Fold:
Amino acid sequence: MAQFVEIKAANPDCLLFYRMGDFYEMFFEDAEVASRALGIVLTKRGKYLGKDVPLCGVPVIRADEYLHRLIALGHRVAVCEQLEDPAEARKRGAKSVVRRDVIRLVTPGTLTEDTLLDAGRNNYLLAVARARSSSAGEDTRFALAWIDISTGEFRVTECDRASLSAEIARLEPGEIIVSDVLFSEADLAGYWRSLPAVTPLGRDVFDSATAERRLASFFAVATSEAFGALTRLELTAAAACVTYVERTQIGKRPPLSPPLRESAGASMAIDQATRANLELMRTLAGDRRGSLLDAIDRTVTAAGSRMMAQRLSAPLIDPAQIAKRLDAVASFVGNIAARAETRSRLQAAPDLARALSRLAVERGGPRDLAAIRDGVLAAAELARAVASLKEPPAEISAAMQACRKPDGMLAAELSAALAAELPAFKRDGGFVREGYDATLDETRALRDESRRVVAALQARYAEDTGIRILKIKHNNVLGYFVEVTAQYGERLMAAPFTGTFIHRQTLAGQIRFTTTELGELESKIASAAERALGLELEIFERLTARVVAESANIKECAEALARLDVASALAQLATERTYARPHVDDSHRFVIEGGRHPVVEQALSRDGAPFVANDCDLSPPQDTDAGRIWLITGPNMAGKSTFLRQNALIAILAQMGSFVPAKQAHIGIVDRLFSRVGAADDLARGRSTFMVEMVETAAILNQAGERALVILDEIGRGTATFDGLSIAWATVEHLHEVNRCRALFATHFHELTVLAGRLGRLYNATVRVKEWQGEVVFLHEVVAGAADRSYGIQVAKLAGLPASVIDRAKLVLAKLEQEDRAAPKGFEDLPLFAVPSGPAQRIEQPSEDLLAAALAALNPDDLSPREAMEALYRLKEQAAKKT
Ligand code: ADP
Ligand code: MG
Structure:
């Protein structure tokens, strides 16, 4: 117990998996927590300091499964192993304790096992460092460093406070580490707690003074010049990552690539709300099915699937880079044979990067060696297959070269060494091919020969004793033993056999004996088997070392395979679903001809229903440089939301380097994408829906620049009609006059359509419906113009509201419409939207205006003395709020 307490004290924030024989045991609070989390039995074992010790355990062979569940629940686990054979401990004295120590901390961001990881997703560990702001008012800088220890990727970047959460949303890290100071920062504390798995760490991990040294020592280089032009802040975050890896992996070194700087703003900025809203990686309900990724991912390897997800979450903003990716896709679109062969070869390529990582951190098995062999061989053959592409574009020829990089002798050596059938663990032995190593073959022969001797011995004993059913068996307690049924037991215990057969055990139906001969054979076999396994493990180490020495080339090759997978998969998608190559450039244009929604289209086609393609043109009108805003009106269910989203998704697809679901597309780079839906429920974060809608709209109006694409879907729905209308109205004006961005604005406020008369770049569009025998028919066709009315009642009828309610609603509507016409329209008299000028534009000054408005609303002549008093108090209160 003393040993346990000591080790536990060194790892207070982890559950301690304490190895005892075939089990990992947990004690005290750990046991209580784990038994609850895993639904396993909690028992007691002895007493410690006078109290019962709670205990629960999991079998070692099923440990991965339990680890997986604990990690998913946000726990961290310290794995404590026996570092010597219990027999060895006994040699030191009967009471001595087996040496044990923690060999690894298992945390969500540092996993390497296939059983713990999602094959098709990266699992990032992210470190966030912040610069102490040097002067007030200056924007605080953050550095992000992230690694995937299961693949070796290592990246860093810097960002400001405003884009911090968008960057984190893009990476979706499995675990985030921050300094405890940053963790408890008032401004950020709530944010950290809203994320899964944020680990606060001591200041030393984020110490900028030692950062360079720690990085250099991890990569075993003399100076950090090797890390190029990383800023001090980036070095700090990167060093935090490697320090954390060292602390959790305890002496093992995953094959990390040196940190690579990702320049800030190299990809389209997409904030968390927009990602969620456009259902890029998963649907709003959290399912992968139904997301954009799910609809477009045709990759055949896990590494390809990871790269596809990465590209989708970070569309590029450099037309030249995008064109390179599109070239690669195009060449696979144009050559069906090369595409088919590439994809079938890729299918035979295992996950090189993850197998390599496991081997490097000594968690690899024989199957990982085989994966390296198969991957390297598949890559070499793939390079040959791709060579049939005429004039391969740059991306592909680079990939071909990388595919040929790993040493061919390595694969040959692995092929020669590895047996046809491989066990899951190296400790099981039997993975080295016969004929590979002479000494091993000899030892194995000895072991097997002895086994034959046992068989012969059984036959002789049966003959000598005349007991035909006599058997020689083996178990861990007795080793080899002779077993006969009870009726023959007597015979062996009497002369002349009693000298040969030594009685060991009497069971219900059987009696067991040993003999001197068996005992001798036993130790011969055991030592031969042990020696054979020892030799195999030596061979394993040697092969692993060869693989690790080749890791740089293997990693490059793995990346190349992923690139080829993505390019050929996108080509496959483009062919299957007739996507077109988009034209992407530096202009402000946005022309989609015959665009479709990639996800809705596939869902409809499964039901055999057609999708109605629609055009969209947000390009700047002649002689202007800012893009258009489309205001889309139309009844519920007409297809407004679908149209809005499809255009945003087409922009994302184009800039990630994919063909797009359209006849033609010309897109001037979108540097920021925003998408908001009115009245989205966000009860989880405890904010009112309207508040969320307004917070998000504020973010857009404050951030969107001329290159942004903004999608606003029914903003202003979450409050009273006039409030909502006024806000929508002012928002459209602001987008047009201040943001000057390309935008699509769907609304049920038909009143907004009059704005087209005043705002030069606003264009009215509507989704056509037909009325036929009192029913609405949705045509899903987007055309110029404004909707004439809402058809709300017709839609309600379709939904099955009782006829009496429908009839009554029609009456009420008729009455309301009459009164509306009688009342003055009002909107024509509204003053023009004024663009605030100068730097003061973001500072709000509502209270002064409110005060003035409140004063103007008072008519002193109409007030009683008491009312006047009250008004005075109210005004004072309002004035106080202002300061
Ligand atoms: P709105 O936002 O106008 O209420 P939605 O965009 O939610 O309408 O569309 C309602 C339904 O109409 C969708 O679920 C989809 O099945 C169908 N739909 C929308 N657009 C199209 C289209 N272009 N072609 C075929 N069906 C469509
Ligand atoms: Mg809608």
Remarks:
- Confidence is low (pLDDT under 50) at residues 680-686, 837-846.
- The CA atoms of residues 769 and 778 lie 5 Å apart.
